[in-house]
Design a protein that fits this description.
cell membrane; 57% helix; flat; alpha+beta; 10 helices; membrane; LptF/LptG family permease
Length: 477
């Protein structure tokens, strides 16, 4: 390896690691905010939060790498240009493409790594992350008894307190408990002037010690529907224990989530796409045969030779047509409605298969597009840094955010159009790359010729070049 390569790689490594860490943190924070409502108030342990953060940070790597390469390339070559190191290297007879080569090779290796990571590690991380997130969403909120509010979090009981005192709110005033464990409604009620709340047996049970209260039990009379026996019992101290098993985190088997498209690699996705396409072709071939019984006097040719001919070519001999009367019209009307309902349901089912196939194809192309984006961002960032010649975190961040937002917007638009069938999935997924690639090639051309983007002499020649095809043209009246 040449000393020049080592110099450029050392200048690139620091900004890349720094920007990658910053981008990971920003994207992870933005992603976690979407699920904040599902996590707050459930008394999750540090280990559960740590697992969720780790899995989601793995999912952010394919998105963080292109932006980190763009920003670090801008910073690296912008700093070299600002300190005139780039000029000194060019003066020694080394071309710009040779200067960019070590970072280009590094970007290519990162692109290969990103594809492997996106195809192998990300599906497993998706399975772990979203199965854990599903279980966290199903978990109940932590025990939170508020004054003046009926609390139904403990199965079989409804608790209401007038006030809570103490440092941790363990002292309860004005306690009312409805016992529904017998399945008889609100026939068992406990009232107490005060109480003390605490956990027992390692937090698996909730103990509620009540003071100066009464319990009321209503027992219906078996001989009379309107009659009932009412029992009241006073107590000075009463201990009630509630099970907190319903607040534990129950893990669902991960195999139940493995059929989702986000949990599959390219090979599995393509196999599933082939299955959907075969199913779609089979159902399309069965449509003429399934619609034929609705027609009494006109039968479809289901052999495939005439199944798609135009309706105008259908002919029915007059000898097969019956006398038109009210019964015939009613029968024809019913059959027409049945055909319409069959066509509508069949069309929706086929459209659903097409859309599902498009969704799986989008996941396949996403793995390739996100990997190629690393090379695209290098092609934009490195020449642009050599042109701007500004290092640091000012101009590079603004330019990086601008191009990444453009790339992200066109990616979302292309993906949406591909999913809705407005354009082919292939073109929709590659649209952002095709739009930004000319910019990267233009920046590379400008950097090789030492032309600045704000070179007024360059842009002043553009109108003359536009007028060139019209030279010698004389306006005639």
């Amino acid at each position: 390896m040449k000393k020049l390569d080592k110099l450029i790689l050392r200048a690139f490594a620091g900004p890349f690691l720094l920007t990658f860490a910053v981008v990971q943190f920003i994207l992870l924070t933005q992603y976690m905010l979407k699920y904040l409502d599902d996590l707050v108030g459930k008394d999750l342990g540090i280990d559960i939060i740590g697992q969720l953060l780790f899995f989601f940070s793995v999912l952010m790597v394919p998105v963080s790498l292109p932006l980190a390469v763009l920003l670090s390339s801008l910073m690296t070559f912008g700093t070299l240009g600002e300190h005139h190191e780039l000029t000194a290297i060019k003066t020694s007879g080394i071309s710009l493409t040779r200067i960019l080569r070590p970072v280009l090779i590094t970007s290519a290796l990162l692109a290969v790594f990103a594809f492997w990571f996106n195809n192998t590690i990300v599906p497993k991380a998706n399975l772990k992350a979203y199965s854990l997130l599903w279980d966290l969403r199903q978990q109940k909120l932590a025990l939170d008894i508020r004054p003046g509010v009926f609390y139904n979090g403990i199965p079989g009981y409804t608790i209401k307190v007038d006030d809570k005192q103490g440092e941790d709110g363990e002292i309860l005033m004005g306690v009312m408990i409805y016992d529904h464990t017998q399945g008889s409604g609100s026939m068992r009620v406990i009232l107490a002037d005060s109480g003390r709340m605490f956990t027992r047996f390692g937090g698996q049970y909730l103990g509620l010690e009540l003071f100066r209260g009464q319990s009321y039990v209503e027992q219906p009379d078996a001989n009379s529907r309107t009659g009932a026996t009412f029992i009241r019992q006073a107590f000075a101290r009463n201990m009630i224990t509630f099970s907190l098993a319903s607040f534990d985190l129950d893990r669902t088997k991960e195999e139940l989530f493995s059929d989702n498209k986000m949990m599959k690699n390219v090979g599995q996705l393509e196999h599933f796409i082939d299955s959907l396409q075969n199913r779609l072709r089979t159902e399309k071939r069965q449509v003429p045969r399934m619609v034929s019984p609705y027609y009494t006097y006109l039968r479809f040719d289901t052999t495939g030779r005439a199944a798609n001919r135009r309706v105008a070519e259908w002919q029915v001999p007059a000898t097969r047509l019956p006398v038109v009367n009210a019964s015939t019209l009613e029968q024809a009307s019913n059959r027409a409605r049945n055909v319409r309902a069959f066509a509508g349901s069949t069309g929706e089912r086929l459209a659903g298969l097409v859309k599902e196939s498009s969704n799986y194809r989008i996941e396949v192309f996403r793995k390739y597009v996100q990997s190629t984006a690393i090379l695209l961002m290098f092609l934009i960032g490195a020449p642009l840094g050599a042109i701007i010649k500004k290092g640091g975190l000012g101009v590079p961040i603004l330019v990086s955010i601008l191009f990444f937002i453009v790339y992200y917007i066109f990616s979302i638009i292309g993906e949406k159009y591909g999913r809705e069938g407005v354009m082919p999935v292939e073109f929709g997924m590659w649209m952002s790359t095709l739009i930004l690639l000319p910019f990267g090639l233009f920046f590379l051309y400008q950097a090789r010729n030492d032309s600045g983007l704000l070179d007024w002499n360059l842009w002043g020649k553009v109108p003359a070049k536009i007028r060139w095809p019209f030279r010698g043209y004389k306006r005639t009246v």
